[in-house]
Amino acid sequence: MDILGIETSCDETAAAVVKDGSVVLANTVYTQIPLHIPYGGVVPEIASRAHVEKIGEVIGDALLKYKAATGREKPDAVAVTYGPGLSPALIVGLNAAKGLASAMKIPLIGINHIEAHLHTPFLRDAGDEEKGLDPVKLAPALGLAISGGHTNWIDMAEYGKYEIVGLTLDDAAGEAFDKAAKLLGLGYPGGPKVDKISREYRESAGEGWKKTLVPFPKGRPREGVSALAGLPADMCVSFSGLKTSLLRYVQQQGGAEALTAAGEIPRVVASYQEAIVGAVADRTRTALKRRAYKAFIVGGGVSLNSRLREVLGEVAAEAGVPILMAKPKYCGDNGAMIAALAYYRRNHEKDAMSLDVNPCLEVGEG
Ligand code: KG4
Ligand code: ZN
After folding, report:
1. Residue 164: is its pLDDT beyond 90?
2. Which ligand 1 atom minimizes the distance to the CA of 9?
3. Is it the case that residue 109 has pLDDT exceeding 70?
């Protein structure tokens, strides 16, 4: 079964066709990042206009690639992200998907963006040698959805049955990377820049690099605060608290310009990244001890972070649980993850043609 997936929840206009929930037959992603750079973050109005301008071209391109790969012009269903995300951006994708479903007379399937990120490790390309894993057989699994808008640890007792067992009480990990980069004048988006600078710092500082780091806290909230979220403190994180400690440190050192002049930015950046990675690793270690998981599934834009991939690999190995991460090209937002998850959601009860966007859609709700 071939499903066309459409994604417009944030700053990527994307469409893809995926066969049977795993093999990517066509994939087109238009990123709006250059449009948002001058503002240091995603501007919803600009995002929505750019989606309107590009959506037709992006879907057309994916369908052309699909035809070239299979000879077929019409997929069997169309799937679309309906939340969470920016409302004016989500509306563009949902309307396009409704139009296509009715013109092509094929079913429409609404998909939760975060749940789709957790499906990305199962995406394969047509030429891949190894056989894909069956996500249904991997339960119980622990999921980590880590992106610009979310940081959630998710218990999946059965495939598709989600319970949040850990989370950030404020900023998402990607947001923490982006805000720090803005504070230090590194530009947008911050995550890839922080990753690169930190990698270079580690290489230049040599073996004892960890001893040179600024000891930023790992953002552990007080018990009483985490109780408000109904979770223990060792499964919650406050990235906003971590960001505040960076801000204080920068102020104490005379500001970002003084740090730049002193050549200290790489050390500060690497220290901050290590605190984020350490916080994520600690919560993951705790979660993996709680249940005999068959797999640890990681998805979302921040899972591109090279240090995070390395450390999470170590944590999973310590626990004896296989870690599953997407190929880098499927870590960021894309239509393939929407199409792939839709294969497992074909019999969703909701009447998709009357579906509305839900900017605050929670994991397990969609
Ligand atoms: O999943 P995604 O593409 O969009 C959302 O659903 O939010 O994630 C985007 C986030 C941004 O905050 C970006 O800075 C972060 O992922 N990111 C990274 C890296 N590449 C992208 N964060 C850390 N290291 C990276 N290499
Ligand atoms: Zn995303």
Report:
1. yes
2. 6
3. yes
Closest residue by Cα to atom 16, ligand 1, is 301
Query: Given pLDDT bands bounded at 50, 70 and 90, which one contains residue 348?
Result: low
CA angle 179, 184, 190 (to 5 degrees): 45
What is the pTM for the complete model shown? Answer: 0.94
The two tokens of residue 170 are 């404020």
Q: What gap in Å lies between CA 316 and CA 191, rounded to an integer?
A: 23
Residue 353 has pLDDT above 90, yes or no: no
Mutate to test the pocket of ligand 1, among 8, 198, 243, 304 (most ligand atoms within 8 A of CB): 304
Which three-class secondary structure state does DSSP give residue 66? helix
Q: Which domains are present in the chain?
A: 2-123+329-354 (3.30.420.40), 136-325 (3.30.420.40)
- Which one, of 144, 149, 184, 137, lies nearest residue 165 by Cα? 144
150 Cα nearest atom in ligand 1: 7
Residue 170 · residue 238 · CB < 8 Å: yes
